[in-house]
Design brief:
Elements lengths: L1 H35 L5 H19 L3 H15 L3
Length: 81
């Protein structure tokens, strides 16, 4: 049982660095979409920019899982996958 728990903890620990590298990629995709998407409403553009800033702050704070989740919300508004 201890091995299963340790394996789970190890797996989660290994995911954190993966999320860390995903954050900058997501932010770049959001920036590119904002620059090229002129049909976005002002309200949606403001929400995306807010989520993007929050995602960057979370990334810098080392909260990569929360950052990825926040950036995913911004990407959804932009229609990105």
């Amino acid at each position: 049982m201890k091995r299963v728990i340790l394996a789970g903890i190890f797996s989660l620990a290994m995911l954190s660095p993966a999320y860390a590298f995903q954050c900058p990629t997501d932010m770049a995709a959001i920036d590119a979409a904002l620059a090229s998407n002129m049909s976005l409403s002002d309200a949606d553009r403001a929400k995306v920019m807010e989520l993007r800033a929050k995602g960057e702050a979370l990334h810098k704070a080392g909260k990569h899982t929360e950052s990825v989740e926040t950036l995913a919300q911004a990407k959804a508004i932009l229609g990105l996958q």
